[in-house]
Specification:
Length: about 130
């Protein structure tokens, strides 16, 4: 079950994008960090099944949900996901399999500065305007 979540073809694309891990301390090194591929399996399982991080079956994956969450946070801050997206898009373009004939574009993340341009007068949303207090 866990091995199917991160096939070798996906791992070969993701591994070079992951940030280098800082060296362990010489004195009091703590636990050995979980393998990145194992953490990615846990992340994929949580995202695929729509469960919370605490519901990840630790015994089946060998990693806790909290560890997977931290690794995903670190990789997000390092820009791994946009880089992977660009890599996959480039591969699709090179294979001439990228069809943008049907796609969804969402601009909800783009801010309309100062409310954008107004084409007309603002209409009130109330039936009768409130009396002026001035």
């Amino acid at each position: 079950m866990a091995a199917d979540l991160v096939p070798d073809s996906l791992w070969e694309r993701v591994e070079p994008l992951l940030p280098a891990r800082p060296p362990r301390r010489y004195r009091f090194p703590g636990r050995r960090p979980v393998d990145d591929r194992t953490a990615l399996r846990g992340i994929m399982y949580v995202l695929k099944n729509g469960i919370s991080w605490s519901q990840l079956p630790t015994a089946a994956f060998g990693v806790s949900g909290v560890t997977c969450w931290r690794r995903m946070r670190d990789w997000t801050e390092a820009g791994v996901w946009p880089a992977l997206h660009e890599l996959l898009l480039a591969e699709l373009r090179a294979a001439d399999k990228l069809d943008l004939g049907r796609c969804a574009v969402d601009s909800s993340h783009v801010h309309a500065l100062k409310g954008g341009t107004m084409s007309g007068r603002r209409r009130s949303t109330v039936a009768t305007p409130a009396p002026s207090t001035t």
